[in-house]
Amino acid sequence: MTANNERAEAIRWIRAQMADYGLTLEELEAAGCFDQPPPPSPPPPVCYRNAQGMSWDGQGEMPDWLRRAVNAGQSKEFYRVG
Predict the structure, then answer these.
(1) CATH among 4.10.430.10, 3.40.50.300, 3.50.50.60, 2.30.40.10 for 37-82
(2) Which among 38, 7, 78, 10 is positioned nearest to 18, based on CA atoms?
(3) pLDDT number for residue 1
(4) What's the predicted TM-score (pTM) here?
(5) Residue among 74, 42, 80 nearest 58 (CA)
(6) Where does the pLDDT of residue 82 fall: very low under 50, low under 70, confident under 90, or very high at 90 and above?
(7) In terms of Cα–Cα distance, which of 34, 62, 33, 32 is closest to 48?
(8) Cα-Cα-Cα-Cα dihedral of 26, 27, 31, 36, to 10°?
(9) pLDDT digits over 4-63, tens only?
(10) 26 in Cβ contact with 34 (< 8 Å)
(11) How many whole angstroms separate alpha carbon 11 and alpha carbon 80?
């Protein structure tokens, strides 16, 4: 089945469902069926970054690259961004 055929079949199914349940386009719009989804939330800010560009937001378990640096005697604050 081609994409155009699948699309046409989906439209036929939607129209049949609307007819079966007595739904109108206005009712679907009022129910929010055509509202745009909310924008994605921004990524968490980077708190720590090394010279290779690896980063950590400070949440959860400390990543291996930072743990190795701290275990080698480097301060975690050395990698703090901003």
Answers:
(1) 4.10.430.10
(2) 10
(3) 63
(4) 0.49
(5) 80
(6) confident
(7) 62
(8) -30
(9) 999 999 999 999 999 999 999 999 999 999 999 999 999 889 999 999 999 999 999 999
(10) no
(11) 53
